[in-house]
């Protein structure tokens, strides 16, 4: 009997210890949404992997928030690049009571989803959204990690005229919030710099045949064709430009500017035939940290970083830093700290202006040589 009583006492003590330990553990749910199916799936998965790396690292460090050991959990959703699916995914994360959201991948899904998060008071940091409307809505929960289309499209428009000496330009966009936004900013800047905009054509983000558009483009004899859209469409477009003998350089924003573009174009990217820019850029001081991240990423996932994984990684780290400083993972408690944060990330300094835009956002200009994306320089 004594032995049995002792056994029960030990079990009770162990249960009490386990309960005390769990009471001291704080579960922090971080949501991530991107297109992890469809044409942009490789970019969406890249973004998701960046958050996964950050949360694994935070858990390995044993971070404490308000005196409790934090256990970070990733709740990942696929919006397939569709605005309706985007708002449904956002509502799902709100219902799951996430502490914060990194995402979405695209402007077209992030803009409507941002209202869902705003209504729930949940901070959202978009790692790759560039449409200016995203932060122009006045939501206090909305933040952006990269320069917007006004900066990106404007820089490319000026570059086309001043550096590439383009006189005649054709603009094509895919009618998405992102594609239209970056194309409009490019057109405005190129025109102001002195280019003649011969045509503005439209396609869709699902199109694969551009024969009619490119026949019309060829007749205009442009020096530059600017495409507002994603690499999954730009690849076939480049292949058909080559088949039809369109000699112009193709320019595009960050949606075009991936390491996958030569493969998506079936090898139709000639040296220096494409000039694109990605929002974000790493200057000399950050190169070491970025190279380490890329090596760790490849070791973990067996593939190269596409574009924005470092920005989702930094976004998750910034969110965690705000929670630590606030001593709470409650959105209402750490949101004011996040708004005023100053953080040294692997992508560079992270601080937000009153709208939630990144302060002094960088852009990186690229071309392609020998089938590889090649950096031309970082501009701010």
TrEMBL record:
Leucine-binding protein domain: residues covered: 28-369
Pfam families per record: Peripla_BP_6 (PF13458)
Top-level lineage group: Bacteria
Gene3D superfamilies assigned: 3.40.50.2300
Coiled coil region boundaries: none
Lineage: Bacteria, Pseudomonadati, Pseudomonadota, Betaproteobacteria, Burkholderiales
The entry's keywords: Amino-acid transport, Signal, Transport
InterPro entries, A to Z: Leu-bd, Leu_Ile_Val-bd, Peripla_BP_I
Species per Swiss-Prot/TrEMBL record: Azohydromonas lata
The family this protein is said to belong to: Belongs to the leucine-binding protein family.
Protein name: Branched-chain amino acid ABC transporter substrate-binding protein
Signal peptide span: 1-23
Protein's UniProt keywords contain Transport: yes
């Amino acid at each position: 009997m004594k032995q049995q009583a002792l056994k029960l006492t030990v079990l009770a003590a162990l249960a009490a210890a386990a309960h005390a330990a769990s009471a001291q553990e704080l579960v922090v749910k971080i949501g991530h949404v991107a297109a992890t199916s469809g044409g942009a799936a490789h970019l969406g998965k890249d973004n998701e992997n960046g958050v996964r790396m950050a949360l694994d690292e935070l858990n390995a460090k044993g971070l404490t928030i308000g005196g409790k050991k934090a256990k970070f959990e990733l709740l990942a959703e696929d919006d397939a690049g569709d605005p309706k699916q985007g708002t449904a995914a956002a509502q799902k994360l709100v219902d799951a009571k996430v502490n914060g959201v990194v995402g979405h991948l695209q402007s077209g899904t992030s803009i409507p989803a941002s209202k869902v998060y705003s209504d729930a008071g949940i901070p959202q940091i978009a790692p790759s959204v560039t449409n200016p409307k995203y932060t122009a809505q006045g939501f206090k929960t909305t933040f952006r990690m990269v320069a917007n289309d006004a900066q990106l499209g404007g820089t490319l428009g000026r570059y086309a005229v001043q550096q590439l000496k383009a006189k005649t330009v054709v603009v094509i966009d895919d009618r998405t919030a992102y594609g239209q936004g970056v194309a409009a900013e490019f057109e405005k800047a190129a025109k102001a710099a002195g280019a003649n905009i011969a045509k503005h054509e439209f396609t869709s983000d699902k199109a694969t045949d551009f024969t009619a558009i490119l026949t019309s483009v060829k007749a205009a004899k442009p020096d530059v064709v600017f495409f507002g859209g994603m690499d999954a469409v730009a690849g076939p477009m480049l292949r058909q430009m080559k088949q039809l003998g369109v000699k112009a350089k193709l320019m595009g924003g960050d949606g075009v500017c991936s390491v996958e573009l030569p493969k998506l174009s079936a090898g139709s990217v000639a040296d220096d035939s494409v000039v694109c820019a990605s929002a974000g850029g790493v200057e000399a001081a950050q190169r070491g940290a970025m190279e380490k991240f890329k090596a760790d990423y490849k070791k973990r996932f067996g593939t190269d970083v596409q574009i924005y994984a470092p920005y989702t990684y930094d976004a998750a780290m910034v969110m965690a830093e705000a929670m630590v400083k606030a001593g709470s993972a409650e959105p209402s408690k750490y949101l004011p700290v996040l708004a005023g944060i100053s953080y040294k990330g692997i992508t560079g300094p992270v601080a937000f202006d009153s709208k939630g835009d990144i302060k002094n956002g960088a852009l990186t200009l690229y071309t392609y040589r020998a089938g590889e994306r090649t950096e031309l320089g970082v501009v701010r």
